[in-house]
Amino acid sequence: KIKLWIDEEELEVDQGTTLLEAAKMAGRDIPTLCYLKELNEVGACRLCLVELEDSGKLVASCITPAVDGMRVKTNTARVRKTRRLNLEFLLSNHKVDCPTCLKSDDCELRELAEQMGIRDIRFIGEKSTFTKDVSTPSLYRDPEKCILCRRCVSVCHEVQSVKAIVPEGRGFMTVVEPAFYNSLSESPCVLCGQCSVVCPTGAITEREYIDDVWEAIYDPAKHVIVQTAPAVRVALSEAFGKEPGTIVTGQMVSALRELGFDKVFDTNFTADLTIMEEGTELIDRIKNNETLPLFTSCSPGWIKFLEHYYPEFIYNLSTCKSPQQMFGSVAKTYYAEKNDISVDDLIVVSIMPCTAKKFEASRSEMNGDVDYALTTRELGRMIKQAGIDILNLPEGDYDKLLGVSSGAADIFGTTGGVMEAALRTAYEILTGEELRELDFTQVRGADGIKEAEVAIADLTLKVAVAHGLGNARELLERIKDGAEYHFVEFMACPGGCIGGGGQPLPATEDNIAKRRAGLYEIDQNKEIRKSHENPYIKKIYDEYLEKPGSHKSHELLHTHYVV
Ligand code: HC0
Q: Does the record carry Nucleus as a key word (predicted)?
């Protein structure tokens, strides 16, 4: 143990504790901009300066380890003035367009300027000029707002192992960009948006399509329907100040109706449909000795990662479209035909926790079935724009058929959820017996890679689950080295969709855990907890799709990725 003093308060801390952590233990709130625990501890922003009493030195507390006998001051005039000066320097080369910046509400730079009482930017001179990057449908980059904190670089390299962006250039012309000053669309970026989650300013954000959706809603000739992803219902209320994990499914449905959507449906319905199709594909591949392991194909960032880095595994990908796209597809065929709506007048909007879903919707394989994919954050903004008091709305119900789902579908939104949902259905289909213990706890939880063996009839099904692309890479390497599985779930974002790049901020591990608990609570309380028991899934097969894996199903619900 190490003994030190933080502002006269005596403290005992473990060896290796930084001054920032020690100060936190002493109840001191030290400002940081570049710091991300264990991920980006680089001391770049110089806002966390503290003063060492003995030497009189100012040091960055996030990278300075506590030393026995140290006396640290966190709030001297010198500390305050220097932190403030450093923030003013950052602002002097920052495009300050707060009233129109998409990140304004969540901007850590703006919050700190407010907290430090900066009312004037004293140093106004030449600023670095860079072009914006709107080359992808998912992300918007404005390097003129970048403060070079390197958080995005760390998350892209260390967590996701994608390495799409790097600091380039020197001095005043330093910029974080894809290598060789390319645009994101020319880079291996998978559009997961984890960079936008950690960016403390508006330098990387989602591309916003709110105005296009308003336009469609206000067009009387258009029939506009909306689907909501599993993970949105346990995170949306954070945009309105509630605790992560608060379940607002019913209020969200009511708010969507008040926004003017003609029908409010649920991606969960097609998550159940996915289980029917993917489960059948798995059983067929096992029976016919076809390519295994089968990889899930619902996370578009994961698919793009595979296409860039592991194309040799392309035939392991399930041919199932994701639930978002299955929804678009049945909406523009079955739903349109049943309700006599011209496909030209039908607009399908989805609310997703994910920035890559915007890209997925735009892929040529998907035929434009989903017109607009908005993030959870965008929906929060739309609700605010309309002046809707979502938290005090009565709980609404989804519209029938495409809005009814099982608990298995809700848990799609967390790592391990697709696997658990599939196991519930595969067990009953393969054994013909009722599954009594529905909770497959082996595939639950936050571990980066999870493995399980499940006895089903005379088969021992070997499965694995990975979330976050760094973990996906590790698991793929294990498979290359001979690890054998039948079925593997991959999700691009840490935690699965609950930790998606379009979710409300901040995305701390604690917040993600609370969202996860919210999804399991919904599942636990649902009357129907298995996809194949959803009566409307049976109905759509009876009325339209015939049976899982049918010719019609293949036409509408499956695709093929080619490299
Ligand atoms: Fe997900 Fe999905 S569960 S990818 O994580 O499968 O984004 O929430 O909507 O499509 O259903 C995201 C979340 C979805 C899809 C579903 C899947």
A: no
Distance 69 CA to ligand 1 centre (A): 52
360 included as an active-site residue:
yes
Phi/psi zone of residue 482: left (φ > 0), alpha (ψ -120 to 50 degrees), beta?
A: left
Q: Which of 269, 277, 299, 302 has the most ligand 1 atoms within 8 A of CB, as the residue to mutate?
A: 299
Reply yes or no on whether 98 is catalytic: no
Residue 9, strand partner residues = 6
Q: Where are the alpha helices (DSSP H) in 16-65?
A: 19-25
pLDDT at 66 over 80: yes
Give the number of other Cβ atoms within 10 Å of residue 359's Cβ.
25
**Within a 10 A sphere around the Cβ of 126, how many other Cβ atoms?**
8
- Determine the distance separating the centroid of ligand 1 and the alpha carbon of 231, expressed in angstroms: 7
Mean pLDDT of 9-17: 96
Indicate which residue of 321, 357, 358, 514 is catalytic. 357
Mutate to test the pocket of ligand 1, among 322, 360, 414 (most ligand atoms within 8 A of CB): 322
| Cα distance between residue 330 and residue 332, in whole Å | 5
* Catalytic-role residue among 61, 238, 497, 530: 497
Q: Answer yes or no: is pLDDT of 563 > 80.
A: no
- The question of whether 462 is a catalytic residue gets the answer no
How many other β-carbons are positioned within 10 Å of the β-carbon of residue 499? 32
The tens digit of pLDDT for each residue in 156-182 reads 999 999 999 999 999 889 999 999 999
pTM of the complete model: 0.96
Q: Are 361 and 328 spatial neighbours (Cβ–Cβ below 8 Å)?
A: yes
Cα 265 to averaged position of ligand 1 atoms, centre (Å): 14
What is residue 457's predicted lDDT score, i.e. its pLDDT? 86
In this structure, what DSSP letter does residue 40 have?
Answer: B
Q: Which domains does the chain have, with CATH numbers?
A: 2-90 (3.10.20.740), 93-206 (3.30.70.20), 211-557 (3.40.50.1780)
